[in-house]
Amino acid sequence: MRRSRVLAALTLAAGIVLAAGCSPTQSAPAGQGGDEKTGPLRVWLFDEANRAPKEAAVNEAIAEFEAAHAGVDVDVQWIAVEGRADKFAGAFNDPASAPDVAEFGNTDVASYVETGALADLTGDIQSWKEGADLLPTVLETAKVDGKVYGLPWFTGIRALYYRTDVFTELGLTPPKSITELTETARRIRAAKPDLYGISVGGQYTYAMLPFLWAHGGEIARQDDQKRWTSSLTTAEAKAGLTAYTNLIKDDICPPAQCANLTGTQSVQAFAGGKAAMTVGGDFNRKAVEGSLAGKYAVVPLPGKDPGSVAPAFAGGNLLGVFGATKRKSLAVEFTQLLGSAKYQGKMYQGMGNLPTLGSVQQQLSTSDPFLKPFVDTIKAGTKFVPSTPAWSKIDAQKILPTALQQIVTGEQNVDTAVAGAVDRMNNTFGT
Protein backbone atom coordinates (compact mmCIF):
# COMPACT_ATOMS: atom_id res chain seq x y z
CA MET A 1 0.00 0.00 0.00
CA ARG A 2 1.25 3.45 -0.72
CA ARG A 3 1.56 5.91 2.09
CA SER A 4 2.43 9.31 0.70
CA ARG A 5 4.44 10.81 -2.07
CA VAL A 6 5.82 14.18 -2.98
CA LEU A 7 5.33 15.11 -6.60
CA ALA A 8 8.04 17.74 -6.68
CA ALA A 9 10.52 19.45 -4.46
CA LEU A 10 8.55 21.94 -2.42
CA THR A 11 9.47 24.85 -0.24
CA LEU A 12 8.94 23.78 3.34
CA ALA A 13 6.67 25.88 5.52
CA ALA A 14 5.65 25.68 9.14
CA GLY A 15 2.99 27.22 11.28
CA ILE A 16 -0.74 27.67 11.21
CA VAL A 17 -2.14 29.30 8.10
CA LEU A 18 -3.75 32.49 9.36
CA ALA A 19 -4.28 34.60 6.26
CA ALA A 20 -4.44 34.18 2.54
CA GLY A 21 -1.67 35.61 0.39
CA CYS A 22 -3.94 36.23 -2.57
CA SER A 23 -7.36 35.33 -3.78
CA PRO A 24 -7.85 32.23 -5.91
CA THR A 25 -8.61 32.44 -9.59
CA GLN A 26 -12.36 32.46 -10.08
CA SER A 27 -14.02 29.65 -11.96
CA ALA A 28 -17.43 28.28 -12.70
CA PRO A 29 -18.82 25.88 -10.09
CA ALA A 30 -17.24 22.46 -10.27
CA GLY A 31 -19.18 19.69 -11.92
CA GLN A 32 -21.07 17.09 -9.97
CA GLY A 33 -18.92 14.35 -8.51
CA GLY A 34 -19.71 10.73 -7.77
CA ASP A 35 -19.63 8.18 -4.98
CA GLU A 36 -17.40 5.33 -6.08
CA LYS A 37 -16.33 2.99 -3.29
CA THR A 38 -12.90 1.94 -4.57
CA GLY A 39 -9.93 3.52 -6.32
CA PRO A 40 -7.46 6.25 -5.45
CA LEU A 41 -8.32 8.92 -2.91
CA ARG A 42 -6.24 12.05 -3.52
CA VAL A 43 -5.38 14.16 -0.48
CA TRP A 44 -3.54 17.49 -0.26
CA LEU A 45 -1.93 18.36 3.05
CA PHE A 46 0.35 21.25 3.94
CA ASP A 47 4.05 20.54 4.16
CA GLU A 48 5.90 21.46 7.33
CA ALA A 49 9.45 22.46 8.24
CA ASN A 50 9.51 19.24 10.25
CA ARG A 51 7.02 17.02 8.48
CA ALA A 52 8.00 13.71 10.10
CA PRO A 53 5.62 13.79 13.11
CA LYS A 54 2.68 14.92 10.97
CA GLU A 55 3.46 12.35 8.28
CA ALA A 56 3.68 9.59 10.88
CA ALA A 57 0.20 10.38 12.20
CA VAL A 58 -1.23 10.67 8.69
CA ASN A 59 0.37 7.42 7.60
CA GLU A 60 -1.15 5.63 10.58
CA ALA A 61 -4.57 7.01 9.61
CA ILE A 62 -4.04 5.90 6.01
CA ALA A 63 -3.17 2.37 7.12
CA GLU A 64 -6.30 2.21 9.27
CA PHE A 65 -8.48 3.60 6.49
CA GLU A 66 -7.15 1.33 3.75
CA ALA A 67 -7.50 -1.71 6.01
CA ALA A 68 -11.17 -0.87 6.45
CA HIS A 69 -11.78 -0.09 2.74
CA ALA A 70 -10.59 -2.78 0.36
CA GLY A 71 -9.56 -1.45 -3.02
CA VAL A 72 -8.93 2.10 -1.77
CA ASP A 73 -5.50 3.67 -2.11
CA VAL A 74 -4.96 6.97 -0.26
CA ASP A 75 -2.44 9.16 -2.04
CA VAL A 76 -1.14 12.19 -0.09
CA GLN A 77 0.58 15.08 -1.81
CA TRP A 78 2.41 17.56 0.40
CA ILE A 79 2.02 21.14 -0.79
CA ALA A 80 3.89 24.27 0.28
CA VAL A 81 1.87 26.84 2.18
CA GLU A 82 3.43 29.69 0.22
CA GLY A 83 2.44 28.11 -3.09
CA ARG A 84 -1.09 27.18 -2.11
CA ALA A 85 -2.76 30.01 -4.04
CA ASP A 86 -1.53 28.80 -7.42
CA LYS A 87 -2.04 25.16 -6.48
CA PHE A 88 -5.65 25.65 -5.44
CA ALA A 89 -6.36 28.01 -8.34
CA GLY A 90 -5.37 25.23 -10.72
CA ALA A 91 -7.73 22.83 -8.99
CA PHE A 92 -10.58 25.33 -9.07
CA ASN A 93 -10.16 25.87 -12.81
CA ASP A 94 -9.63 22.20 -13.65
CA PRO A 95 -11.70 19.88 -11.43
CA ALA A 96 -9.97 16.87 -12.98
CA SER A 97 -6.75 17.97 -11.29
CA ALA A 98 -8.40 18.64 -7.95
CA PRO A 99 -7.89 16.44 -4.88
CA ASP A 100 -10.71 14.68 -3.12
CA VAL A 101 -9.68 16.02 0.31
CA ALA A 102 -7.60 19.10 1.11
CA GLU A 103 -6.22 20.97 4.10
CA PHE A 104 -6.58 24.74 4.02
CA GLY A 105 -6.54 27.71 6.37
CA ASN A 106 -9.82 28.93 7.81
CA THR A 107 -9.17 32.48 6.56
CA ASP A 108 -9.10 31.08 3.01
CA VAL A 109 -12.43 29.28 3.19
CA ALA A 110 -14.64 32.18 2.02
CA SER A 111 -12.49 32.73 -1.06
CA TYR A 112 -12.49 29.03 -1.86
CA VAL A 113 -16.26 28.71 -1.40
CA GLU A 114 -16.79 31.57 -3.83
CA THR A 115 -15.33 29.41 -6.61
CA GLY A 116 -18.03 26.78 -6.07
CA ALA A 117 -15.43 24.05 -5.78
CA LEU A 118 -15.92 22.96 -2.15
CA ALA A 119 -18.60 20.53 -1.00
CA ASP A 120 -21.11 21.59 1.63
CA LEU A 121 -20.35 19.40 4.68
CA THR A 122 -23.09 20.74 6.96
CA GLY A 123 -25.06 17.49 7.04
CA ASP A 124 -21.93 15.36 7.29
CA ILE A 125 -20.74 17.26 10.35
CA GLN A 126 -24.17 17.10 11.96
CA SER A 127 -24.40 13.32 11.48
CA TRP A 128 -20.77 12.60 12.46
CA LYS A 129 -20.62 10.87 15.83
CA GLU A 130 -17.93 13.28 17.04
CA GLY A 131 -19.47 16.37 15.44
CA ALA A 132 -21.24 17.50 18.60
CA ASP A 133 -17.85 17.70 20.34
CA LEU A 134 -16.54 20.36 17.95
CA LEU A 135 -16.20 23.67 19.77
CA PRO A 136 -18.99 25.94 18.44
CA THR A 137 -16.80 29.05 18.07
CA VAL A 138 -14.21 27.05 16.16
CA LEU A 139 -16.85 25.47 13.93
CA GLU A 140 -18.03 28.98 13.03
CA THR A 141 -14.67 29.57 11.32
CA ALA A 142 -15.56 26.84 8.82
CA LYS A 143 -18.86 28.44 7.82
CA VAL A 144 -19.86 30.70 4.96
CA ASP A 145 -23.45 31.96 4.95
CA GLY A 146 -24.33 29.42 7.62
CA LYS A 147 -23.04 26.37 5.73
CA VAL A 148 -20.02 24.30 6.83
CA TYR A 149 -17.29 23.79 4.25
CA GLY A 150 -14.60 22.12 6.31
CA LEU A 151 -13.95 20.05 9.38
CA PRO A 152 -11.82 22.09 11.83
CA TRP A 153 -8.65 20.01 12.21
CA PHE A 154 -6.83 22.21 14.68
CA THR A 155 -7.04 25.73 16.00
CA GLY A 156 -4.48 28.35 16.98
CA ILE A 157 -5.09 30.68 19.92
CA ARG A 158 -2.94 33.47 21.29
CA ALA A 159 -2.38 34.41 24.92
CA LEU A 160 0.07 36.42 27.04
CA TYR A 161 3.57 35.00 27.49
CA TYR A 162 5.60 36.57 30.30
CA ARG A 163 9.02 36.16 31.92
CA THR A 164 8.53 34.68 35.36
CA ASP A 165 12.09 35.53 36.44
CA VAL A 166 11.65 39.20 35.55
CA PHE A 167 8.26 39.39 37.24
CA THR A 168 9.64 37.78 40.40
CA GLU A 169 12.63 40.10 40.49
CA LEU A 170 10.44 43.20 40.15
CA GLY A 171 7.66 41.93 42.43
CA LEU A 172 5.07 41.89 39.65
CA THR A 173 2.03 39.70 39.07
CA PRO A 174 0.38 38.86 35.74
CA PRO A 175 -1.90 41.73 34.66
CA LYS A 176 -5.64 41.34 35.09
CA SER A 177 -6.76 44.01 32.62
CA ILE A 178 -5.47 45.84 29.56
CA THR A 179 -4.79 48.90 31.72
CA GLU A 180 -2.72 46.78 34.12
CA LEU A 181 -0.92 45.22 31.15
CA THR A 182 0.11 48.66 29.90
CA GLU A 183 1.20 49.81 33.35
CA THR A 184 3.16 46.61 33.97
CA ALA A 185 4.93 46.85 30.63
CA ARG A 186 5.85 50.46 31.38
CA ARG A 187 7.23 49.57 34.82
CA ILE A 188 9.37 46.82 33.36
CA ARG A 189 10.82 49.09 30.68
CA ALA A 190 11.63 51.72 33.31
CA ALA A 191 13.35 49.20 35.59
CA LYS A 192 15.10 47.34 32.77
CA PRO A 193 15.72 49.66 29.80
CA ASP A 194 17.36 46.82 27.89
CA LEU A 195 14.00 45.01 27.71
CA TYR A 196 10.82 45.86 25.85
CA GLY A 197 8.01 45.88 28.39
CA ILE A 198 6.09 43.82 25.82
CA SER A 199 7.05 42.97 22.26
CA VAL A 200 4.22 43.74 19.87
CA GLY A 201 4.34 45.31 16.44
CA GLY A 202 2.67 47.51 13.91
CA GLN A 203 2.36 44.54 11.57
CA TYR A 204 0.98 42.15 14.18
CA THR A 205 -2.71 42.26 13.24
CA TYR A 206 -3.68 39.21 15.28
CA ALA A 207 -2.27 40.71 18.47
CA MET A 208 -4.22 43.93 17.86
CA LEU A 209 -7.59 42.30 17.25
CA PRO A 210 -8.15 41.13 20.87
CA PHE A 211 -7.74 44.75 22.02
CA LEU A 212 -10.28 45.86 19.42
CA TRP A 213 -12.77 43.18 20.39
CA ALA A 214 -12.20 43.62 24.14
CA HIS A 215 -13.37 47.23 23.84
CA GLY A 216 -16.51 46.18 21.97
CA GLY A 217 -15.24 47.05 18.51
CA GLU A 218 -15.59 45.03 15.33
CA ILE A 219 -13.60 44.90 12.10
CA ALA A 220 -16.72 45.04 9.95
CA ARG A 221 -20.42 44.26 10.02
CA GLN A 222 -22.72 42.56 7.53
CA ASP A 223 -26.15 43.97 6.69
CA ASP A 224 -29.34 42.15 5.73
CA GLN A 225 -28.22 42.06 2.09
CA LYS A 226 -24.99 40.32 3.19
CA ARG A 227 -22.91 43.38 2.35
CA TRP A 228 -19.89 44.04 4.54
CA THR A 229 -18.95 47.52 5.78
CA SER A 230 -15.99 48.47 7.96
CA SER A 231 -16.83 49.25 11.59
CA LEU A 232 -13.50 50.79 12.57
CA THR A 233 -14.96 54.30 12.92
CA THR A 234 -16.97 53.39 16.03
CA ALA A 235 -15.81 54.76 19.37
CA GLU A 236 -15.31 51.20 20.65
CA ALA A 237 -13.08 50.23 17.74
CA LYS A 238 -10.98 53.37 18.07
CA ALA A 239 -10.61 52.76 21.81
CA GLY A 240 -9.31 49.27 21.10
CA LEU A 241 -6.86 50.49 18.46
CA THR A 242 -5.64 53.18 20.84
CA ALA A 243 -5.14 50.67 23.65
CA TYR A 244 -3.01 48.51 21.39
CA THR A 245 -0.95 51.31 19.85
CA ASN A 246 -0.27 52.68 23.35
CA LEU A 247 1.99 49.68 23.81
CA ILE A 248 4.20 50.78 20.93
CA LYS A 249 5.67 53.78 22.71
CA ASP A 250 9.21 54.69 23.73
CA ASP A 251 8.48 53.76 27.34
CA ILE A 252 7.25 50.24 26.44
CA CYS A 253 8.17 49.04 22.92
CA PRO A 254 9.78 51.94 21.00
CA PRO A 255 8.30 52.65 17.56
CA ALA A 256 11.78 52.82 16.05
CA GLN A 257 12.19 49.13 16.83
CA CYS A 258 8.61 47.91 17.08
CA ALA A 259 6.57 49.72 14.41
CA ASN A 260 7.53 47.17 11.78
CA LEU A 261 7.46 44.03 13.94
CA THR A 262 5.36 41.15 12.64
CA GLY A 263 3.88 38.46 14.83
CA THR A 264 6.82 36.12 14.25
CA GLN A 265 9.31 38.88 15.01
CA SER A 266 7.44 39.87 18.18
CA VAL A 267 7.63 36.31 19.50
CA GLN A 268 11.26 36.04 18.43
CA ALA A 269 12.08 39.16 20.44
CA PHE A 270 10.56 37.53 23.52
CA ALA A 271 12.23 34.18 22.90
CA GLY A 272 15.54 35.97 22.34
CA GLY A 273 15.42 37.64 25.74
CA LYS A 274 14.61 41.13 24.44
CA ALA A 275 11.13 41.45 25.94
CA ALA A 276 9.40 40.66 29.23
CA MET A 277 6.06 39.86 27.62
CA THR A 278 4.55 39.11 24.23
CA VAL A 279 1.33 37.93 22.63
CA GLY A 280 2.03 34.43 21.34
CA GLY A 281 0.17 31.34 20.24
CA ASP A 282 0.05 27.80 21.54
CA PHE A 283 1.96 27.03 18.35
CA ASN A 284 4.90 29.22 19.52
CA ARG A 285 5.72 26.92 22.41
CA LYS A 286 8.77 25.26 20.88
CA ALA A 287 10.26 28.57 19.79
CA VAL A 288 10.03 29.92 23.34
CA GLU A 289 10.83 26.72 25.22
CA GLY A 290 14.14 26.32 23.46
CA SER A 291 15.64 29.45 24.97
CA LEU A 292 13.50 30.28 28.01
CA ALA A 293 12.72 26.91 29.58
CA GLY A 294 11.75 27.42 33.20
CA LYS A 295 11.72 31.21 32.83
CA TYR A 296 8.30 31.88 31.33
CA ALA A 297 4.62 31.22 31.85
CA VAL A 298 1.41 31.92 29.94
CA VAL A 299 -1.92 33.43 31.03
CA PRO A 300 -4.95 34.50 29.00
CA LEU A 301 -4.57 37.96 27.49
CA PRO A 302 -6.58 40.18 29.83
CA GLY A 303 -9.57 42.14 28.63
CA LYS A 304 -10.78 45.67 29.29
CA ASP A 305 -12.42 44.90 32.64
CA PRO A 306 -10.36 43.44 35.52
CA GLY A 307 -10.55 39.66 35.52
CA SER A 308 -11.90 39.41 31.98
CA VAL A 309 -10.27 37.69 29.01
CA ALA A 310 -9.80 39.46 25.69
CA PRO A 311 -11.45 37.59 22.80
CA ALA A 312 -8.77 35.85 20.75
CA PHE A 313 -8.68 35.30 17.01
CA ALA A 314 -9.51 31.65 16.30
CA GLY A 315 -7.03 30.71 13.60
CA GLY A 316 -6.49 27.20 12.35
CA ASN A 317 -6.78 24.75 9.50
CA LEU A 318 -9.71 22.83 8.05
CA LEU A 319 -10.10 19.59 6.13
CA GLY A 320 -12.46 20.01 3.21
CA VAL A 321 -13.87 17.94 0.36
CA PHE A 322 -13.95 19.03 -3.27
CA GLY A 323 -17.38 18.88 -4.89
CA ALA A 324 -15.95 17.26 -8.01
CA THR A 325 -14.71 14.21 -6.12
CA LYS A 326 -15.80 10.88 -7.59
CA ARG A 327 -15.62 9.33 -4.13
CA LYS A 328 -17.66 11.63 -1.89
CA SER A 329 -18.40 9.15 0.91
CA LEU A 330 -14.79 7.98 1.09
CA ALA A 331 -13.55 11.57 1.10
CA VAL A 332 -15.87 12.50 3.96
CA GLU A 333 -14.99 9.37 5.93
CA PHE A 334 -11.25 9.99 5.59
CA THR A 335 -11.71 13.62 6.63
CA GLN A 336 -13.60 12.48 9.70
CA LEU A 337 -10.93 9.92 10.55
CA LEU A 338 -8.13 12.50 10.39
CA GLY A 339 -10.29 14.89 12.39
CA SER A 340 -11.28 12.32 15.02
CA ALA A 341 -10.29 12.45 18.68
CA LYS A 342 -7.72 9.72 18.11
CA TYR A 343 -5.82 11.56 15.41
CA GLN A 344 -6.29 15.04 16.83
CA GLY A 345 -4.53 13.68 19.91
CA LYS A 346 -1.72 12.26 17.80
CA MET A 347 -1.36 15.55 15.91
CA TYR A 348 -1.05 17.38 19.21
CA GLN A 349 1.59 14.97 20.45
CA GLY A 350 3.54 15.19 17.21
CA MET A 351 3.02 18.78 16.08
CA GLY A 352 1.59 20.62 19.09
CA ASN A 353 -1.61 21.44 17.19
CA LEU A 354 -4.44 22.49 19.52
CA PRO A 355 -7.43 20.14 18.99
CA THR A 356 -10.87 21.40 18.00
CA LEU A 357 -12.79 18.73 19.90
CA GLY A 358 -13.71 19.91 23.38
CA SER A 359 -13.17 16.56 25.10
CA VAL A 360 -9.68 16.21 23.64
CA GLN A 361 -8.78 19.76 24.65
CA GLN A 362 -9.97 19.11 28.19
CA GLN A 363 -8.08 15.85 28.47
CA LEU A 364 -4.84 17.34 27.15
CA SER A 365 -5.04 20.50 29.29
CA THR A 366 -5.40 18.33 32.37
CA SER A 367 -2.22 16.42 31.57
CA ASP A 368 -0.34 19.40 30.11
CA PRO A 369 -0.77 22.62 32.16
CA PHE A 370 0.74 24.70 29.34
CA LEU A 371 -2.52 24.35 27.39
CA LYS A 372 -4.78 25.65 30.16
CA PRO A 373 -4.55 29.40 29.36
CA PHE A 374 -5.31 28.72 25.71
CA VAL A 375 -8.24 26.45 26.52
CA ASP A 376 -9.51 29.02 29.04
CA THR A 377 -9.26 31.67 26.33
CA ILE A 378 -11.38 29.56 24.00
CA LYS A 379 -13.94 29.00 26.75
CA ALA A 380 -14.12 32.75 27.34
CA GLY A 381 -15.03 33.27 23.68
CA THR A 382 -13.12 33.68 20.45
CA LYS A 383 -13.77 35.82 17.37
CA PHE A 384 -13.04 35.61 13.66
CA VAL A 385 -12.36 37.87 10.72
CA PRO A 386 -15.15 38.77 8.25
CA SER A 387 -16.22 35.63 6.39
CA THR A 388 -15.90 37.06 2.91
CA PRO A 389 -13.43 36.64 0.03
CA ALA A 390 -12.64 40.35 0.41
CA TRP A 391 -10.84 39.67 3.69
CA SER A 392 -8.01 37.89 1.88
CA LYS A 393 -7.46 41.02 -0.22
CA ILE A 394 -7.69 43.34 2.78
CA ASP A 395 -5.14 41.24 4.61
CA ALA A 396 -2.83 40.97 1.61
CA GLN A 397 -2.96 44.76 1.13
CA LYS A 398 -1.95 45.22 4.79
CA ILE A 399 -4.68 47.79 5.32
CA LEU A 400 -4.83 47.34 9.09
CA PRO A 401 -1.04 47.19 9.63
CA THR A 402 -0.65 50.35 7.57
CA ALA A 403 -3.08 52.19 9.85
CA LEU A 404 -1.34 50.88 12.97
CA GLN A 405 2.04 51.99 11.70
CA GLN A 406 0.73 55.42 10.78
CA ILE A 407 -0.55 55.82 14.33
CA VAL A 408 2.50 54.56 16.23
CA THR A 409 4.97 56.54 14.15
CA GLY A 410 2.96 59.71 14.58
CA GLU A 411 2.44 60.07 10.84
CA GLN A 412 -1.32 60.28 11.40
CA ASN A 413 -3.64 60.45 14.38
CA VAL A 414 -6.13 57.68 15.10
CA ASP A 415 -9.06 59.36 13.38
CA THR A 416 -7.17 60.06 10.16
CA ALA A 417 -5.50 56.65 9.98
CA VAL A 418 -8.82 54.88 10.64
CA ALA A 419 -10.63 56.95 8.01
CA GLY A 420 -8.08 55.93 5.39
CA ALA A 421 -8.30 52.28 6.39
CA VAL A 422 -12.10 52.35 6.28
CA ASP A 423 -12.12 53.80 2.77
CA ARG A 424 -9.75 51.13 1.50
CA MET A 425 -11.64 48.34 3.25
CA ASN A 426 -15.01 49.45 1.92
CA ASN A 427 -13.62 49.73 -1.58
CA THR A 428 -12.45 46.15 -1.26
CA PHE A 429 -15.78 45.04 0.22
CA GLY A 430 -17.46 46.75 -2.72
CA THR A 431 -19.54 49.03 -0.50
TrEMBL record:
Signal peptide region: 1-19
GO molecular function annotations of the record: maltose binding
SUPFAM superfamilies reported for this sequence: Periplasmic binding protein-like II
UniProt keyword Signal, yes or no: yes
InterPro entries according to UniProt: SBP
GO cellular component terms attached to this protein's record: ATP-binding cassette (ABC) transporter complex, substrate-binding subunit-containing
Pfam family, one: SBP_bac_8
Any GO BP annotation: maltose transport
Keyword Membrane: no
Keywords, sorted A to Z: Signal, Transport
Family that this chain belongs to: Belongs to the bacterial solute-binding protein 1 family.
Protein's UniProt name: Extracellular solute-binding protein
Species, as recorded: Amycolatopsis suaedae
Phylogenetic classification of the source organism: Bacteria, Bacillati, Actinomycetota, Actinomycetes, Pseudonocardiales
